Structure formats: structure tokens, C-alpha cells
Amino acid sequence: MVIDDLYDADFYTWSLRQAEAVRRRSANELDWDNLAEELDALSRSEVRGLFSRYAVLLQHLLKWMVQPEGRGRSWRNSIANQRDAIARHIEQNPGLKAKEADEFAAAYTAARREASTETDLDLDAFPEAPPFTMDEAKNPDFWPEAA
């Protein structure tokens, strides 16, 4: 089976063979185009991970702000866990620093919509623009005031 065909037919086996070829430094066995595509996909996955963590963090911060009566251990733990996860993710992938502000902004839009859905409150109950900065959102000592 040709390398390109294996990529389409059995990604798992293709991946193992490519990893082994890289370890042996056997350049003539490498599927260069598909390897480049997969490496690009890995980097996009790390960006999606950052976006996802921010979306959850911002959603809970918004709910904390808009529904003070719902504040409890669960929300506090979720906020703390996401803050820790974001810090670890950036620490493990320092190149993501350049994308962090954009992902924060994009995640806010998703978080606002999710917070509205989860609370059964009108979307207008949540500010259109983030009511706190990215640094505030990540700060373990920051807890937004009730709206």
C-alpha cells in the first residue's frame, strides 16, 4: 500500500509508521504533505483547547456576576479549575501567548450565549463586551461583582 493510500485507509497505522520513520530519520519514507497537514492540525487543536477553557471560565464568571444567588462551591471550583487549566496550557504551549487575546475575545461571545442559555436569561442580561479584562479573568483573586 502506498503511503498516501495508507493515510486515507488506516490513519492509525500510517501514524505509527511515520513516527518510526522519523525516529530512524528515514526521510524517503516520510509522507511529507500529510505530515505537514497533521502538524498544522495539532497546532489548531492547541488553540481550540485554549478557546474551550476560556469559554468555560467566562461562562461561569458571567453567571457568577449575573446570578449572585447561585454562587456556590461548584461555580467557584469550576472557575478555579479553568484558571489553573489556562495557566498550565499557556505554560506548556508558550507560543499560544500570541493568540491568547483573540481566543479570549472569541470565547467571550460563545460564553455569553451559553450563559444565557443555561440561566434562561435574555442574552441582553449579559454585557456585549467582556466586563472584565483577560488578566482579571485569569486572576485567582478576582471575583466579579453582581451586575
Fold and architecture overview:
The chain is mainly α and 147 residues long. It has a domain at 45-138. Helix content is 70%, strand content 0%. The protein contains six helices and no strands. The longest helix has 35 residues, at 32-66. The protein is elongated, with a radius of gyration of 21 Å.
Tags for this model:
147 residues; mainly alpha; 70% helix; elongated
Task: Give the helix/strand layout.
Layout: H1 3-9, H2 11-23, H3 32-66, H4 73-92, H5 97-119, H6 134-138
Helix pairs in contact: 1-2, 3-4, 3-5
Count the DSSP helices.
6
Q: Estimate the strand proportion.
A: under 5%
Amino-to-carboxy terminus distance = 62 Å
Structural class based on helices, strands and sheet pairing: mainly alpha
Q: What's the β-strand tally?
A: 0
- Classify the helix fraction into a percent range: over 70%
What would you call the shape? elongated
Oligomer: single chain
H/E element order:
HHHHHH
Q: Rounded to an integer, what's the Rg over CA atoms?
A: 21 Å
Unreliably modeled segments: none
Largest sheet composition = none
- Global mean pLDDT: 94
Entry summary:
Helix content is 70%, strand content 0%.
